[in-house]
Amino acid sequence: MTEPLVKPKKKNPVLRTRLATLPPVPRSRTALGLTRAAAEGVFEMQVCADCGTVQYPPREVCGSCLSEHLAWKPVDNRGELIATTTLRHSNDLYFRERLPWRVGTVKMAAGPSVVAHVHEDCAEGGSVRLTLKLDRSGQAVLHALPEKDTPNMNDAPQLRESTCDPKFRRVLVTDGKSATGMAVAKAMLEAGANAVFLGDASTWKTVPAFDKLVASDPRLQVVELDVTDTDSVDRLAASIGGKVEILVNTADYLRDGGILNRKDVNLARDAMEVNVLGLMRLAQAFGPGMCFRAADGSNNAVAWVNILSIHAHAALPARGAWSASKAAALSLSHTLRAELRGAGVRVMNVFPGPVDEEWEQLTPPPKIAPSGLAKAIVKGLQDGVEDLYVGDIAEELRTRLRENHKAVERELGQ
Amino acid sequence: MSTPILAQFMAELLSGRVKLVDLTQTLTPEFPIIQLPPEFGQAWPFRIEEISRYDERGPAWYWNNFSMSEHTGTHFDAPIHWISGKDQPDNAVDSIPVENFIASACVIDVSAECAENPDFLLTVEYVKAWEEKHGRIPERAWVLMRTDWSKRAMPKEYLNMAEDGAHSPGPDAEVVPWLIQERNVHGFGTESVGTDAGQAHHLNPPYPCHYFMHGNNRYGLQCLTNLDLLPPQGAVIFAAPLKIRNGSGSPLRVLALTPTV
Amino acid sequence: MSAATSPAASAAPAGKRRGYDGVAVTVPVTIPYVRYSTRSAHWWLGRALAELIRGAGIAKGEVDGVCVSSFTLGPDTAVGLMQHLGMSPRWLDHIPMGGASGVVALRRAARAVQAGDADVIACIAGDTNHVDSFRNTVSQFSRFAQDAVYPYGAGGPNASFALLTDYYMKHYGASREDFGKLCVAQRDNALKNPHALMKKPLTLQQYLDARPITDPIHLFDCVMPCAGAEGYLVMSEERARALKLPYARVRSTIERHNAFPEDPIQFRGGWAMDKDALYEHAGVAPADVDFLETYDDYPVINAMQFEDLGFCAKGEVAGFIRANEFTIDGSFPFNTSGGQLSVGQAGAAGGYLGFVQALRQLTGGAGRTQVKDAKIGVVSGFGMINYDRGLCSGAAILERGATQGEAA
User: What is the predicted pLDDT for the residue at A11?
Assistant: First the structure.
């Protein structure tokens, strides 16, 4: 059974910090289908549309009937662990630093045999379930996990490499005073975070629920942070940048309004200031420090979370400026992801549907409770996904966008 | 051709018998701005982004871009700022006659009262009592209300927000028209974030200082500091807003000339 | 030699195969291996070709066919190498089959000589080994390896063979002691081979006590990557006799690729599909074989070849190993050069090592490694762990043609 993770000691400031290395990056373009599935937290492989053969490794044509019709589909993730080995030597720097490393061959119920990382609680010859996860390079890898969850399973060092579990990590919630920010802070504490820094952009404003939250747990620490103020962001990064292992950007500026029903771009500009440039300021201030600490022990810096919106993918004309800012933030997140990938810091984008908070007062249900959104974010980090769709509306829009994005555009515009 | 008066003024200034006092708050991103209900558009706070600092962005020079509203930091309110002043002549910062940028000042010290009561309102009676002690307010003079608000902790004590909004001192609804009609003042200045009291939306009319001053083509100054360094009477204020076309106000440097003897 | 037991799996040839009548395989050449080389693959291959020409006593232009195998020749192929070496062959092949290259090159070259497409074919394999060559080769080995193996610990072939060794040991009864016995015997043989990089004796205890690399693979289960080249000539028997060259004849050959894809993990190679056809075509039985040269990148693959080439039944390898001695003068002379495990693995030349050694045995040129009265030898090849298993397998049954004394 997995030994529970020990709470990391305070950093020894006179020891050199281990720099980040990455597991092997190159993949064929087709194999990036696995990366897509892992990023979304689903278990999919290519399935031949003609003969049904499950393909692995990913192929261009069916290895059984030569059909070109290979579709990525969910497949049975169960299998038998027929062989294992423990690497005590590796050709790769990343693995050399993490030896010993267990891998094995799993004969899948769906057909193929796969080579996978093997969890320490998996017995050779026994049943396992496979999951697709993103490794530190951001590429998909298979992890063989015990058939059923075991105690402290997520604490296994190998699994922790492919996940972003908040346990024993320190989290910055950039707007800790919003309903979502407070919920995220609570969820992080419940998930075992060592500390949660709550950003406060309006220290002059008294919010009783915030005060009550802050008083509830000594791990919470209020920090002044206004993402529209470069100086504020820089000052905070200079103060706690070396301690932030997960950054959750909850700062959001949501106001109604499209284009023609206003005479100015002020609200749009305010939205851009918070939702786009705020993200950029945070990234410039906190990104380098997180990259520096991306391999720093068991509480290394692992994840950057952007709370976007399903409307980053499809504008809601009634909130046109806000939608545009979310789309811009989504675009920016891809750049950030590319820039953080070199260190292995994951960017998780969260795409919720409407959240049940004050600026969504007039939005009809279903709406996601902030606590539900926060729990989904924690689970997303624990699972190590990259794209997280939260709530029925987000899921529905996502599906419909794949089916007919024009229909979505027309209907959201009504 | 020499101008003896200005020469004499410069001599007084250089000798130290006339002192310059800076009544301006430093523009910083964290300096508080007036908070409107969140569904309204908000005045931009002061924001600054470095363009270069002797670095790869500009090897030999340092400069910044900044942004803010017309009503950020220590700033001037022009009559056009308020609906009551919208039809006044020469009511915007670019059209105000430049002579109006220099005026004498009366400083009414209500700091003791404000320490007791953040909602302190200046009344006609209070001003009359002040005049008895310090002399009549001269024509076309700034009336500056010294509250020591500028010494409060930023931003929380300064904005002093409660569940029912901001609590800060200002003039009541009677004293403003009285100052205009009876004393023909130049304008009204405060240390807090607005010329009106924090709770002035409950007065009749709401925001009387804005309403009456601008409705009578007078001016406002707010977010002032160092009023405690000025005499009750005798200081001269130099307050020239930026020349923004049709501007409703402007951040500015407010300087006071005061006698030292 | 022990008797063969046929497993069920075998593939009947589609039609009657022609023999290799009139084909001579000659001039075994080894360019002595070094651990690391600052030379390029072109140097090693060029040296092998030069040694073949010198050994045959012919002019460079008389070599009108070339067959090349190399991992480190990139970005060149055999084509670029011809310009590099100033060759104008009328027949050229490039065989990227790693450990099966030596046998497969023979198959291609022998048919070309029989058909008259070429008269003298130089088969050469060689690789350099810079300090980073091995890592580069392993990390870019194949698409499936890149997509589905290397990201899992980047263990290279050690990891892949560890998995199938683990499976094989659990299901087919071989122990580390069994593998160790083979390694120790190979080291004994290597001590008689001046080309072998391993010069120190190895005891079973040392083998067992070695540090683990990738469980259950330990240090002496692994080959040492090095630089080197091997080569041989294929020509007609008439030509070989005219040149007074000792040579071997070809009784039969097989090759197979991606055999048994349905096996969940590799526990047998393609030989198991083709061995009956091999012996039938050759007209010999396993019991007739005087020595065996296998592809031995890991001991487990030796064990599989014993079974799949019919020297013992599947699952009986432990008994077979315990019942035999594998030294040059033992009951089952095996990997008489010392094999890759004791000579070194010079990239694609590793796929030629056993073949070239077999030629020496059958032409009386094996020196201190000579198996007495060796007349029939089996060479097998195995290569290319593309994903989870070796895909290429091949084997050749060679017989003594003319030895050094007879040829002269």
Answer: 87
pLDDT 10s digits, A331-346: 999 999 999 999 999 9
In the structure, do chain B and chain C come into contact, i.e. share 3 or more CB pairs under 8 Å?
no
- HSE-CB at C332 with a 13 A cutoff on CA atoms is 24
Which residues of B are known catalytic residues?
81
Torsion of CA B251, B253, B257, B258, to 10 degrees: 80
Give the residue among C209, C212, C192 at the shortest CA–CA distance from C201. C192
In contact, B200 and B207? CB cutoff 8 Å: yes
Domains assigned to chain A? 32-161 (no CATH), 170-412 (3.40.50.720)
Report all structural domains of chain B as residue ranges with CATH numbers, in order of start: 15-43+69-259 (3.50.30.50)
Pairwise CB contact (< 8 Å): C154 & A92: yes
* β-bridge partners, A355: A368
Q: What is the mean pLDDT of residues B145-150?
A: 98
A15-53 CB burial, b ≥16 within 10 A, e <16 = eebeebbbbbeebbebbbbbbebbbebebbbbbbeeeeb
**Is position C69 within any domain?**
yes
pLDDT band at C138 (very low <50, low <70, confident <90, very high): confident
For the whole model, what pTM was predicted? 0.92
Assess if residue C208 is contained within a domain: no
Residue C309 lies in a domain: no
pLDDT tens profile B171-204: 999 999 999 999 999 999 999 999 999 999 999 9
Task: Please report which residue ranges of A157-207 form alpha helices under DSSP H.
Answer: 157-161, 179-190
Q: Are A262 and A255 in contact (CB under 8 A)?
A: no
How high is the pLDDT of residue C408? 57
Label residue A270 left, alpha or beta by phi (over 0 means left) and psi (-120 to 50 means alpha).
Answer: alpha
Residue C392 is assigned to a structural domain of this protein? no
Helix (H) / strand (E) element for C402: namely: strand C390-402
**Domain count of chain C?**
1
- Amino acid identity of residue B243, one-letter, is K
Count H helices and E strands in chain B, helices first. 6, 15
CB contact under 8 A, A206 and B163: yes
Q: Give the closest of C212, C264, C265 to A88, CB-based.
A: C212
Mutual angle of helices B175-183 and B124-134, in 10-degree steps = 50
Interface residue A404 vs chain B (CB under 8 A):
no
The long-range contacts involving C141-145, CB below 8 angstroms and separated by at least 24 positions, are C141/C385, C141/C386, C142/C384, C142/C386, C142/C387, C143/A28, C143/A57, C144/A57, C144/C386, C144/C387, C145/C385, C145/C386, C145/C387
- Rg of chain B over Cα atoms, rounded to whole angstroms, equals 19
Per-residue pLDDT averaged across C130-141, rounded? 82
Residue type, A348: M
Supply the range of the domain harboring residue C93.
Answer: 23-132+225-242
Element (H, E) at B236: strand B235-239
Tokens of B47: 């924001």
Q: How far apart are CA A326 and CA A323, in angstroms?
A: 5
Residues 6 or more apart whose CB falls under 8 angstroms from that of C376 comprise: C251, C284, C288, C289, C290, C397, C398, C399, C400
For tokens 């993990």, name the residue. C265
Cα nearest neighbour of B50 on chain A: A230
Contact A202/A213 with Cβ under 8 angstroms?
no
C-alpha triplet C272, C277, C280: angle, nearest 5°: 130
Q: Which of C33, C342, C326, C297 is nearest to C200 (CA)?
A: C342
Report the CATH number that the domain containing residue C105 is assigned in CATH: 3.40.47.10
Q: How far apart are CA A116 and CA A135, in angstroms?
A: 12
Q: Which of A204, A232, A255 minimises the CB distance to B32?
A: A204
Residue C404 reports pLDDT greater than 80: no
Mean pLDDT (chain A) is 96
User: CA Rg, chain C, in Å?
Assistant: 19
Confidence of residue B261 (pLDDT cuts 50, 70, 90): low
